[in-house]
Amino acid sequence: MLKVNFFREFKIEYKDKTIGDSLSKSKKHLSLLGYLMLMSDKTFSKEALMDLLWDDDRSDNPGNALKTAIHRIRATLDQLDYPEEIIIRDGSSYRLNRDIPILSDVVEFEKLCKIVMDSNAENSERLKCYREASVLYTGDFLEQHKADPWVIPIRTYYRSMFLSSTYEAIHILEVTQDYTEAEKFAEKAVLVDPYDENLHYCLVKSRIKQGKRIAALEHYNYTVDLFHDKYDVTPSKEFIALYRDITEQTHLETHDMDMILENLREAPNKEAFFCNYEMFKDMYQFKARVLATKPEESYIFLLTLRSDESGVVRDAAGKLKRYLKANLNRSSVITRYSKSQFLMMILNEPKEISEKKIQKLLTKFKKENPIFNVDFELLARHIEATADVQ
Questions:
Q1: H/E segment holding residue 202
Q2: Torsion sign, CA atoms 144, 150, 152, 156
Q3: Pairing mode, if any, of strands 299-306 and 341-346?
Q4: Is 334 helix (H, G, I), strand (E, B) or coil?
Q5: How far is CA 163 from CA 192, 194, 372, in A?
Q6: Per-residue model confidence as pLDDT tens digits over 302-319
Q7: Burial of 242 (0-12, 13-18, 19+ CB in 10 A)
Q8: Which residues of the chain, if any, have pLDDT below 70?
């Protein structure tokens, strides 16, 4: 029996012998071998195989190139010392020797995922199958051949199958309140597709349910930054709402005020306070309440970045975030409002002075980062005191 591995690294094993991507510098003939192994029940004409590998006409003589590729395939397969011929020439066509039993990770993976997706199956069996499928899915289909046109739709197919099965498995675990394993499943899935917001939602939620609030908040902030930087968007309202769940915490009763104060105390820090938008909103509303009893000059500033060059705003905003945090007064509060905007709350300082400081920082930023061809727009509003309810 030949054992064939398609996920992540392509390789074929027979007894103690192995051939594959890691053992060969030439990738074209291994891509063809992978195709023949995957489609082991089919016969292919020379023309079909030439179109498969050289559909972009980069080969001056695809017929000779195919002959060379088949020769290399056979030489590579010879290293397995298999007692039968593996690639059969049938007239002007080629096929795999159908008398050879093959154990393929993608075939086993698909069988397992079908059980996971079967709502009529027992949940315990579905979870068992998912665990086995997850072990098989070590990475995308033929990762080292991801640019080959024939690989792309198949890679997408198996990735989608893995993610759909993951959602089913997590749903089962949420019903049984097994959030520890749900977290493990979500952690692997976000590595497969880091831009699937729902997977990040499942991961943060599983950590909240386990009381892992610090880890949940860290991944929450990571996800918000990721979507700002990659897609220039803010995550959905459903994801943002997780922040409230993270910050709701119940403590055991205590009369040790020193312990409470120690827990509340911030470590020494010279930087301005950067937070997510939900926390910024809470701090703004609290400050507005304070101003109702103790008036002072405090302002909120909206900073917008603009550029005609693609991608510049995204890259500049990432660096500007760190720059503002490091250079604004430590009593200032900053948040990312949109892909191109920051909100800043400057406390107990006249508007003209704050504006002058911010403009000076922005001028310095542009001078120190000439690669960012950006312009800045700065708007300011006085923080209005919250009126008392009569």
A1: helix 197-209
A2: negative
A3: antiparallel
A4: strand
A5: 8, 11, 38
A6: 999 999 887 888 889 989
A7: buried
A8: 24, 55-60, 232, 249-252, 388-390
